[in-house]
Each structure stands twice: as C-alpha cells, then as structure tokens.
Specification:
The protein is an alpha+beta fold. The protein has a domain of about 180 residues. The chain is built from 13 helices and eight strands. The strands form three sheets. It has a four-stranded antiparallel beta sheet with strand order 1-2-6-3, sandwiched between helices. The chain has a two-stranded antiparallel ribbon with strand order 4-5. The mean pLDDT is about 90. The structure holds iron/sulfur cluster (SF4). The site of iron/sulfur cluster (SF4) has 14 residues, from helix 8 and helix 13. The site of iron/sulfur cluster has 14 residues, from helix 8 and helix 13.
Length: about 350
C-alpha cells in the first residue's frame, strides 16, 4: 500500500522530530551542482527537511555565566545533532524505503571540513556534495533565514537543528513561507553579538530566489564569528582568562578567513601542552578542551560552543518571544532576565579573585 505525506509527517512527529517539510526538486534549480540534492541522488523528486528544537534551557548556564557543559553536550553539537535527530531521521528514511522508494538520509554537519577531491568520472560532480541545509529548510517551507543567517521557524525562532532525506518519492511540496514572516529586522542579533562584531561582511547581503519569493540576509563575517564562537575570544570565555593571564586579544580587530579562525581557535581550545606547576592540566585551555570532550569526544572530531550564540540565537529568540512572533513561549517570561556579562579582551595578569 502507498504511504502518504500525512503518514510520513505523523511518523516523524511520533518519533520525536519537531519539524517536517517537503521541497520538490524543482525548488533547487538555482543551486550549484556541488550543493544540489540531485548530485547525490540523480533521480531525486523530493527533499524532506526535518528538525528538532534546541532547548531554550540549553543556553541558561552560558547566559548566566555559570555553566557551560550541557549546551555542547546536548544542544549545539552533541546528542541533539548526532543522536536525537539522527535516530528518527533514519527510521523515517527506512519507512520510505519500506514503501519502495529510495531514501538518502543526509547528515548536514561540518561542510567546511570537507576535503577537495577530483570527480570520480568525467562530467561527474566532485565529492563531497554539500546540501545547504538552511536553504533546503526554506525550500521545504519550514522557515526563513533571518538577518543573522540563522534559520528561523515560526515555532522556535532560531532554536533548531535541521537534517534531510533526499528521495525519489514524489511528495506534494509544502507552501513557502513569505519572507519577513518571522525576522522583523530588529537587529538584536547584531547588538547582542559581543562587542558588536559586524554581522555584515563588506556591507553585503546574500539573496536567493525560490519560485516567486526572494529571501535576503546579511553576509556574516565568519572569521570573527568563528574566532568568537569556538574559543578564541577572551570576552566570552572565563577559561581563557584562567589559562592566559596577561594576554590581550581583540577579536573585532582580526580579519581572518573562517578556515584560519578555526585553525587558531581549535588549536587553542583542543591542544595539549606539557603539565607544569603553573598549568598542571596538560591542556592549552582546559575549560574548552573539556567542553569538546563532553560534546562528542575531541578524538571523534566533535564540535563545541564557547560563546553560545549570544546575539544570533539568545538575543534573537528573546526578542521574537517578546513580540509574539514565535509560537513557543515560556511561563517565566523573558529569557534575558539579568544584566548580561562580558569580559575584557585584555586578560588581567593576576586573577581578580578565586572563586
Ligand atoms: S535578531 Fe532575529 S529577528 Fe531580529 S533581525 Fe536578527 S535574525 Fe531577524
């Protein structure tokens, strides 16, 4: 018996997925070949995009400046991205194959880590193809991309992770969301970003067209963003202050590429050093290193989040909840309840005081 889109949607919901939408393959007509779902499955007719929420409480400890581990472990990269979404995604793909259609479960992580390889045969697309999952989410009618370049949904604002299934099953696409339905250009993502790191690179925006709709967002300065997010910014890391007394590093004055920023921030955060009486841990920045280990395991290549998306996530959903622009709200009121903390980029030579 044929399976319907409604049955797929219900299965996804019962399996623990919060978001489900379908794009037909025609909506990817503007995608470059190395980002096109049909470069993975040439017979693709549909792309199902699914998502699961990032819990608001996942950021509470970072917002208060008191507790870092669970955001990385559950929400940013760890169990949410590698397990909570993947198990139901895989089961959904199996269900599609049980009904005679091929289903490619697509893992949307870490595009920047993909090696450059030559094509395996003449005329083929070089591996690895990388589907832009946020654009796929827009094409599947789940949400839109906010000014911050973060994917926003009506249900959770910026709080979700997305993955996809590419299939040759023909499925009726969901309607596209009208641009501006969620993002109101409030710019809290910019003002909430530590030290107002310019969100917009070279005053440029990115625009895409899907059917009759144009979606536009800021071209984010990913070098600064990566340095800040992954452990290169003393303003957002008490762990840098502990391990580099006397250092001064102003992220806003750096002009690195995203790759160079990763190289610096990950080396600092994950690297080891000899154990000495001054720094007995044997790690360059002990606090960051443990975050990565608690995330997915540093040896397994798991990622970690130090800065915790102060502007593009926390300021954004705080604003969207207040304005009633998203559905999930909370009885306790605003997420941001107290004055926000930020440390100096000049790390004092002597610690201000022991906890
Ligand atoms: S904070 Fe969110 S809603 Fe406001 S402009 Fe940025 S992305 Fe849009």
């Amino acid at each position: 018996m044929a399976i319907t889109k409604q049955q797929l949607r219900e299965f996804a919901g019962k399996s623990g997925l919060d978001l489900f939408g379908v794009a037909n393959i025609e909506r990817f007509s503007g995608a470059p070949p190395r980002m096109h779902p049909a470069s993975i499955l040439p017979e693709a007719r549909s792309v199902i995009v699914v998502g699961k929420r990032i819990m608001r409480g996942g950021w509470r400890g970072i917002e208060e400046g008191t507790y870092w581990p669970n955001y990385t472990y559950f929400d940013y990269h760890g169990l949410l991205n590698s397990f909570f979404i993947q198990a139901p995604l895989y089961d959904l793909a199996c269900l599609i194959e049980d009904h005679g259609w091929e289903a490619v479960p697509y893992y949307s992580g870490v595009p920047e880590a993909q090696p450059d390889c030559p094509p395996v045969r003449e005329g083929a697309v070089a591996p690895n193809v990388h589907l832009a999952i946020r654009i796929a989410g827009v094409a599947a009618g789940i949400g839109e991309i906010g000014w911050s370049k973060v994917f926003l949904t009506k249900k959770f604002g910026p709080r979700q992770r997305l993955h996809a299934i590419i299939t040759d099953m023909p499925i009726e696409p969901d309607p596209l969301i009208e641009p501006g339905t969620i993002c109101d250009r409030c710019m809290h993502c910019v003002s909430g970003c530590p030290g107002a790191i310019p969100h917009q690179k070279n005053a440029k925006t990115i625009k895409i067209q899907i059917e009759d709709k144009t979606y536009e967002w800021a071209d984010v300065d990913m070098g600064k963003c990566t340095l800040m997010y992954h452990g290169g910014d003393p303003r957002v890391s008490p762990f840098i202050h502990k391990d580099f007394p006397g250092w001064c590093f102003d992220v806003t004055k750096q002009n690195l590429s995203e790759e160079a920023a990763y190289k610096l921030a990950w080396t600092l955060s994950l690297g080891h050093w000899r154990s000495t009486p001054e720094f007995p841990s044997g790690r360059i920045i002990e606090g960051h290193s443990y975050l990565a280990q608690w995330g997915m395991g540093e040896k397994e290549g798991g990622s970690f989040g130090v800065e915790g998306s102060r502007g593009c996530m926390r300021s954004c959903f705080n604003h969207l909840e207040k304005r009633g622009r998203i559905e999930q709200t909370f009885k306790g009121g605003d997420f941001i309840k107290r004055p926000r903390w930020i440390l100096p980029c000049e790390v004092p030579k002597e610690p201000a005081g022991k906890p």
